[in-house]
Amino acid sequence: IQNQDSKSYNSLNSCIDSLNCGKKKLRHNPICKRIFNKKRKPFNSLKQRLQGTDIPTVKKKPPTKKKSNWRQQHEDFISAIRAAKLATRAMKEGRPLPPPPPPSINPDYIQCPYCMRRFNQTAAERHINFCKEQAARRSFAPGQKGGKPASVSNWTLFKLFASTIFLSSFFEGSS
């Protein structure tokens, strides 16, 4: 009986712990080393789906980047800073204010045909639909006779005129 116990004890000691998975089998260790040393490729399901079909594999083009206009934006910013400095210097010295710089127009923005304001792509899509409805309501306002539509250009001229009056009164009142 002791002889059998010693054989089983020796066989347990001869088993080596696998460093990779923790199993204690003598025959398992070299197989385990071989498996864990291999790098597995990621499975490409698209490639497998397309096998056997006549669909050619099309590589996607990287999205085209818009040309950056940072230099123009920087120049606009610098000119706005200089104009603000001139205005504050004129206010301190009591001189008349210089005319405001012309507004810079961002070429990436889309102009609304109804109110002439400019928006980025997503905001323009929402705004133009809204402004179209508002222009239709404005054109048939109850104060007008005969349902004659109001001119959009008249509205635009009014807004420009009102904004220049506001700006001129703002600069005159601050001195």
From TrEMBL:
Keywords: Metal-binding, Repeat, Zinc, Zinc-finger
Residue spans crossing the bilayer: none
Top-level lineage group: Eukaryota
Residue ranges constituting the C2HC/C3H-type domain according to the UniProt record: 108-137
InterPro entries registered for this protein in UniProt: ZC2HC1A/B-like, Znf_C2HC_C3H
GO MF: zinc ion binding
PANTHER family for the chain: C2H2 ZINC FINGER CGI-62-RELATED, ZINC FINGER C2HC DOMAIN-CONTAINING PROTEIN 1B
Name this protein carries in UniProt: Zinc finger C2HC-type containing 1B
Organism this protein belongs to: Pseudonaja textilis
